[in-house]
Structures are given as structure tokens and as C-alpha cells.
Fold:
Amino acid sequence: MKILVTGGAGYIGSNLVDALRASGHDVRVLDNLSVGQIENIAPHLGAAGFEFICDSILNAEAVDKLVSQVDLVYHLAAAVGVRYIVKDPLNAILTNVRGTENVLASCSRYWKRLVIASTSEVYGKSNGQMLSETADRTLGPTSVNRWSYSASKAIDEHLAWAYCGKGLPVSVVRYFNSYGPRLNEDGYGSVIANFIRQALCDEPITVHGDGRQTRSFTYVTDTVKGTMLAGERPEAIGEVFNIGDPVEISVSELAKLIKGMTRSGSPIISVPYEDYYGQNFEDTPRRCPDITKAATWLGFEPQVQLEDGLRHTIDWCREHYKSANHKGSATTSPPLTVVRPKSAEAARTPAVTAADAAGPAVQC
Ligand code: UDP
Structure:
């Protein structure tokens, strides 16, 4: 198959490209390298069946030409990362809404199947429940820049359903805190990238707020698997899926885990949200996916456990992060352990107990 991946030089995009190429597909990557990096796709450059086009999804002509040449499109190009969005909301909104509209219009013109990468951020401040795809969205006021990201991705989804109503075969995947090799060192400031970089540099590991907020982290091979399933299965057309690993951990526990795994001497410190994001920021205390739909419809089941995935991510960061001082033992990790599919019940058991969450969040 001929496949276009927008944002294919980015962290998730390039991991998707690797998997598609390994499955024997011809791949074209459209990426303007604003956050993505050429090194991420370096092994494919010059290879038969691979093409890289350095351009923006805002270039409707370029998008249109590429879409006309392929059978399937994975649309991952977007302005991502809460910190980045908070800093430049205008660019984020325009990139996400106009860029996605360009991709949708072209796919509709040539009747090409499309998978759009969305985000768990569309749910907004979650209300403490596990999030199923039909959960309500709960957002703060428009004066809080963070929510513009959620709104822009939700508009992308609305656009997708509008085009779907006209017959476009489109699916949406909502990612939950993906992590793994190629996580950008400073591009979008995800908590795992930050903590690993800080630990490897012996800088303080900065836990925002009281550290009791939890997230469900998903290893990138699982993120990629869910994405590919959405592009392969006919039943995925016209549907949205949570792609994540429901096992939860608090941010303060994550800091301790990464500190221990890197054998870092970094202190773990608590910093107010506004020191990092500026004034007028709102966080969400919990964001945990209900993946029943992806499991039932697509056969999606996350397979990589957090410690295993972190070990591989840390090894990669040790080697690639420019600021890392490469301290500690650069181990060669054993291959990823593919765990037996968890039962729905086990998968929903938080890794962090209520006692953990209630205890002192961080050592300062
Ligand atoms: N966070 C943190 N320290 C950091 C970066 C992030 O404590 O250096 C927190 C952040 O405030 C949030 C959580 O980690 O509560 C996850 O942040 P991230 O930006 O990775 O993802 P999202 O908020 O979109 O889930």
C-alpha cells in the first residue's frame, strides 16, 4: 500500500513510519520539521519506497498532490504539547484547524481513507471517571490558553465527522500520554522527557503542584499499534477510539521511579504550575482511558508495562539527549517484554494506591 504520514518525522509519526515500512508499505512523509527531526527518519532516506517532503500541512497544494498519490493517510502533523500551545496559541489553533481541514478536503476530493490523530486533551478537565469515547468534554474558560489545544483538536474531530457524513472513510484516535524513544528533548515538554532529561543532567526533577495528579502513560509501540489498527480495520471507519494504557501513576511517583531507574542524584522538587506555564493555567487531576471500545472493535491491547518502556526510553535518551551527561551505566536493555493481555479489570487497577496519593507528594 502507498501511505502518507503527515508529521512523519515527529516522535509518534516516525515510530509509525518504522512500523509501516517494516510491514512492507511504501511511505511518504510530509513534515515541516518544526518539531519533528530529520534524524528520526534518517534510516529511510534514500530507500526505495520512501519519500520525504519538507513542507507544511498549511500548504494545501502540497497536501493535495500527496494525497492524490496514496491509498491511505495517517494525519499526525499538529501543534502539540501543552507548554508549546500555552506559549503560542494562535499558531497552534491555525495549524491544527486549517491544516486538518486541508487534509480532510483532499482526502474527500480523492476519496482516500484517513486516520486523524487526536488527543485525550479533548476531554478537558476530567471529572475523575475513566474516560470513554462518549464522555462529556469539560473545559475551563477561553481565557485559559491551555484549552485552545483541546478546542482545536475537537474542531478537527467535528470536521472529520462532517466529512464522514459526506461519505469520507475517516477514523479518529485519541492518544493518552504516549512516551518512548524519540520523545523530543525540549520540543513539547512532556513530563517523561523532562524528568529523564533532568535526572540524566543531575538537575532538580520538577514536579508541578502537589504531584498527586495522575496520568496513564502509553508506550509508543502500543500507540502505533492502535493507530495502525484504526487504519486497517473496516469497522473503524466513522469511529473514534481511545488509544492508551489505563494503568495510572501519579506524577510524584513517576519522578521517584525515573530517579531510581536512572540512579540519579537529582533532588525531586515541587514547583508551582505558574513557574512553568505562566499565570492562568489549569491542570487536570486525572486522565485515564476506558479502552473497552478499542479492545472490542480493534483488538487493541496495550502490551508494554511502564517500567519496561521507561527502561528503553531512558537508554535512548541517554544516547541522544544533547544535554544528558551520559552518567550511570549505559545498559543494553533486554528486548521489550510483551505482557499477556491484561483482563479489563486488571488493566483498570491503578498502579498508585490511594495511600500513595494521599501521602506526601514530593520530597523537596
Ligand atoms: N509535569 C510536571 N513536571 C514537568 C512537566 C510536566 O510535573 O516537568 C506535569 C504536568 O503539570 C501535568 C503532568 O505532568 O500535571 C503531565 O504533563 P504533560 O505535559 O506530560 O501531559 P498532559 O498534561 O498533557 O497530560
